[in-house]
Batch of 2 targets.
Target 1
Amino acid sequence: MKIETDWSLQETARRRDTYYAASQRKFVPFAEPMVFKKGAMQYLWDEAGRKYTDLLGMNVCISVGHSHPDVVEAATAQARELTHCTTMFYHPVPAHFAEELAATLPKGADGDIEWVAHFTNSGSEAVDLALAMARTYTGNLDLLALRNGYHGPTSAAQSVTGIAAFRHPGLPGNVAFVAEPNQYRGVFGSGTAPYLDEIDRTIATATTGRLAGIIVEPVQGYGGIVEMPPGYLAGAAERVRAAGGLYIADEVQAGFGRTGDHMWGFEVGDAVPDIVVMAKGIGNGFPLGAVLARKQIAEPMADKFMFHTYGANPTSCAAGRAVLKVLARDRMQANARDVGGALLERLRDLQQKHPQIGDVRGRGLMLAIELVKDRKTREPDPETTMAVFENCREAGLILSKSGPYRSVLRMVPPLCLSMADVDQVADGLDHAFRSLNS
Ligand SMILES: Cc1ncc(COP(=O)(O)O)c(C=O)c1O
């Protein structure tokens, strides 16, 4: 059966404007809309056949490459056989995937950490579940979260999201926010200690003193690629554990080898989390999320139902299994490290040339440049960021505007970005800055 689709930009825009609710219509980054028709690895093509390099990775969902043949093949084979199987019946594909994901996580200094998985449909559902698990296990309600952190649109995930633009009225409470340890423009300047002191102060003043946990992105994504400085993750985990809480790592953006040196962003620090939240890159575009928790922490949830309809969907899990295979076979984590390192160098060169670039940061293929009106005052420059972003589109580059002031250009491409792409990206960005005054 052939189902007709009208691919024209004009008609697609008209249909969206007419039939999408305001809540879904708002998310349009460019001045003029775009339609994408095709993707292959790190590249995209619009409906008119123009090619772009996707530095956004379709919002960090594309880990191993657009329409990666191995992932498509695995999912298609599974969908042909049985597209969905509710979790109440047993299916080997999600069971294998749970085992394979558990094997990617550290066993701890004593080698005795046992990891178990609960699959969800999305990252925010996984965040909600992680918070419920922490509250159930500890018997405490209070959570710490970081300002500038993003954890998703569901109510509980929003309640720990520290960016006003993503928060809606009526969110659950019992969340206290601590200042994010932003080394470029953090409220306490650079260093780790002042931000750990802030955790102590916040526990002492804004909570009951007994915590369910802290949720933290090892590298803040929508917050504008803010890395946790050395010692922060372990220091935060130590303080939260002393108050009875758990350490929850949100790896939705930083996970699956993106940061280059490690499979998981938290591995940059010494502390092993109690709960790890995964999504996006886990399915390379197939909808999927997961909570991996230490077995004893997940166990008290056995008393009640927690049923995500498509949670352990075998088609998405088949895609996920293929993602893990491709990551390992094609050494994509190492590629992220090497290609990301080369791109970082080029971004630093651009910083020398263009005074609008206040900061260059990130690791692996999780990079950003932050634009400022003045390097001394570090006043954010969202207008120039918007202009560079539009110029990049003209140069065939898709980036993302991020950060609390929309003044950060975030680069989170598929992990197959190549050394040859680095030149095109750096030259395109250079051109985008040089075109500002023309
Ligand atoms: C760090 C982080 N956590 C959680 C989420 C929520 O994931 P989802 O959009 O799949 O619900 C996101 C989504 O952007 C994210 O970036």
Target 2
Amino acid sequence: MMNNPGLNCPKCGQKIAISIEQLISKSEIICPACGLQLNVDGEKSANALGALKTFNEKLKSAKQ
Ligand SMILES: [Zn+2]
């Protein structure tokens, strides 16, 4: 079972599908559901980013 990488909007809970590459290259993410703007380098997104990195590592190991 595999989920698409992404993070949940802290405001509306909508899953925002975004790749690690997008997260790194973009300075902000906009929720498609409520329009909330997330700053990638903010403290609140650090946990989500960490979770994404963990997910990406699991994905890599799963592909081996
Ligand atoms: Zn939202």
